[in-house]
From TrEMBL:
Keywords: Isomerase. Residues 361-438 form the Adenylosuccinate lyase C-terminal domain. InterPro entries: AdenyloSucc_lyase_C (IPR019468), Fumarate_lyase_CS (IPR020557), Fumarate_lyase_fam (IPR000362), Fumarate_lyase_N (IPR022761), L-Aspartase-like (IPR008948). Its EC number is 5.5.1.2. It comes from Actibacterium naphthalenivorans. This is 3-carboxy-cis,cis-muconate cycloisomerase.
Length: 448
């Protein structure tokens, strides 16, 4: 029986992520902990802390060892962490004198944190690929719709004409910034953890620093002082995931609004049906992204709380991290999975976009026409004329441009209204702005 929405067969298509689940599952965690124990033995053999022969025997044996997570359940419930039960099981499989040297001078948190970092390294690689895929697809769509006019909305109201290409670029803009933060996040996160019982490596003194450096090399991680009580890197990771959720949440919300029946300005994804209303195509994937973004935002407080452990090590708040972080990673993966599909299938409905521009009898052009007037009269007078023309357009159904041109104060002016309302005039600033959003976007495979 599965309760989690990330694994529940009824909901996993919306909120789950099979690829990331494979990297984060209990089996993967046990495998990584075994790999850390093997690397620790090799590091201690290299530094002369344990016999070289024992280190080699441990490394060779652990390469063949297998421990089922279910076999660690009782031990974890007893110790509050799976490592003691795991080490006992591994010693039984290694046998002989070499087993004596397994887990030498380490503490459970060293093993779990190193294993977690190895899992995070793999997960971040997947997230990076998907995030790049979303940005690439949005860039292509923005270029495709660079000249497609639509009505911008500010505070939910129709504002001025922009291009669909610019709106798409705005979806990509925070994602590009988020991608730019990834190298620094990796540098902060992918560090070795080796501090021993209280973080001072007392049991292996004076070799602690040498072991840590050798272990980091074995695992392909950066060397670091022990960080049992410093969970700031985990907060940085959760905040980064939250940023992805927020950015994708905007994309999802905008697509939901653009796809409303009365607007229908853009569509993406396959759409979902209704049990009783066959005319509907519900924005299921966009809705799922918004839900996942909300979930990610809600978890931030828990991760901040988990980052205030008491004294040198704290089992209670460490456990809170276990409860929250894996689900945040799964939620991020699922949101990106949906976003890639939506970005790649995004399609405009130009006729409906044009209809939205025509709502209000052309009042969407009020800003442009106001500036046209201000080129010929004082600002206050131009604003007064515009207010009068808008009122007339709304009352009589006359187009705003016609109502404005008919005013006595305006009729005498020689204004080429078409210059101010031509599609090219309006589209060009949006095109330049969209291009500037992507100016620094260079995926790794395109770098020289």
């Amino acid at each position: 029986m599965t309760v989690s929405a990330f694994e529940n067969p009824l909901l996993s298509g919306l909120f789950g992520d099979a690829e990331l689940a494979d990297l984060l599952c209990a089996e993967a965690q046990v495998d990584r902990m075994i790999a850390v124990e093997a690397a620790l033995a090799r590091a201690q053999g290299r530094t002369g802390v344990i016999p070289v022969r024992a280190a080699q025997e441990i490394s060779d044996a652990l390469g063949l060892c297998s421990v089922a997570p279910a076999d660690l359940t009782r031990g974890t419930a007893s110790a509050g962490v799976p490592v003691p039960a795991l080490v006992a099981a591994l010693r039984g499989q290694i046998g002989g004198e070499a087993a004596h040297w397994l887990h030498w001078g380490a503490t459970s948190q060293d093993i779990v944190d190193c294993a977690t970092v190895l899992q995070l390294r793999d997960v971040l690689a997947v997230i990076e690929i998907r995030l790049s895929g979303v940005i690439d697809a949005l860039q292509a769509a923005s270029q495709q719709h660079a000249g497609q006019l639509m009505a911008a909305r500010t505070r939910s109201q129709i504002a001025t004409p922009i291009t669909f290409g610019l709106r798409i670029a705005r979806w990509a803009q925070p994602l590009i910034a988020i991608m730019g933060e990834l190298p620094a996040l990796r540098a902060r996160l992918l560090r070795v953890q080796f501090g021993g019982a209280s973080g001072a490596n007392t049991a292996v003194a004076p070799h602690g620093a040498a072991i840590s450096a050798a272990l980091a090399e074995e695992l392909g991680l950066a060397d670091s002082p022990s960080w049992h009580g410093d969970r700031s890197a985990m907060i940085a990771l959760s905040a980064w995931l939250g940023q992805i959720g927020a950015a994708l949440g905007k994309l999802g919300r905008d697509l939901i609004l653009m796809g409303r029946s009365e607007a229908g300005e853009a569509l993406a994804g396959a759409g979902g049906g209704s049990s009783t209303m066959p005319q509907k195509a519900n924005p299921v994937q966009a809705e799922a992204i918004v839900s996942l973004g909300g979930f990610l935002a809600a978890q931030q407080g828990a991760m901040v709380m988990a980052a205030s452990p008491a004294e040198e090590r704290d089992g209670a708040l460490w456990g809170l991290e276990w409860l929250v972080l894996p689900n945040m990673l799964l939620a991020t993966g699922a949101a990106l999975r949906h976003a890639v599909d939506l970005a790649e299938t995004l399609r405009a409905r130009p006729e409906n976009m044009a209809a939205m521009l025509d709502l209000g009898n052309g009042t969407v052009w009020a800003e442009a026409l106001s500036f046209a007037l201000m080129a010929h009269m004082p600002r206050a007078e131009a604003q007064a004329c515009m207010k009068q023309a808008i009122a007339q357009a709304r009352t009589t159904g006359t187009g705003l441009q016609q109502a404005l041109a008919a005013l006595p104060e305006v009729r005498r002016l020689s204004i080429d209204w078409a210059v101010w309302t031509s599609p090219e005039t309006v589209a060009e600033p949006s095109r330049r702005m969209a291009q500037s959003v992507f100016a620094d976007w260079r995926p790794d495979h395109e770098k020289t």
